[in-house]
Amino acid sequence: MPRIFFGLELPSEIKERLLNVRVSVPGAKWQSAEQLHITLLFLGGVEESRLEAVVDSARAIRPTPFELEVSGLGCFGQSRRPRNLWAGVQPEAPVADIHEALGQRMEKLGFEAERRSFLPHITLARFKRQPGSVERLLAEQGASVFGQFAVTEFALFDSKPGPAGSEYRVIERFPLSGPG
């Protein structure tokens, strides 16, 4: 059963700048360039028989293309003991709008809505056991700007766990074109 999620792909030049954030932090499991993305909506394990309905429903979402700036660093959890280190995006509203539209459509297909509030971000590192502090990193690079890019599509990804972390493969891309 594929584990799937909707997300936004990032241009390679922004990925390269994000990879330069890496510093030695105890417990950090840094994401590879292939793993860097913005998650819009995680669905989890989905039966193959439901995949076509998911794709068809997502095709009906027609947001307008927009510009997105990748800037700022933050973390989930306390900076002394983080769970995740992330880069932020601005403006958040168009990303949140796609998240909301996808959530509503997937709920109609019987998927459970996420209960957490949505914060568009790019996960840079995950922390499992005995995380080290990212306070210094946030103080030194917290206001960094990593670049801007045009968002012209979103994608449906398949996520397969692997020894170096999850591997992602695009199942389908959905162009942004605005109300038609």
From TrEMBL:
The keyword Phosphoprotein does not apply. It comes from Marinobacter salsuginis. The keyword Cell wall biogenesis/degradation does not apply. A motif (HXTX 2) lies at residues 121-124. Hydrolyzes RNA 2',3'-cyclic phosphodiester to an RNA 2'-phosphomonoester. Its EC number is 3.1.4.58. A motif (HXTX 1) lies at residues 37-40. The active site is at 37 (proton donor), 121 (proton acceptor). Pfam families: LigT_PEase (PF02834). Keywords: Hydrolase. This is RNA 2',3'-cyclic phosphodiesterase. Belongs to the 2H phosphoesterase superfamily. ThpR family. InterPro entries: Cyclic_Pdiesterase, Phosphoesterase_HXTX, RNA_CPDase. It catalyses: a 3'-end 2',3'-cyclophospho-ribonucleotide-RNA + H2O = a 3'-end 2'-phospho-ribonucleotide-RNA + H(+).
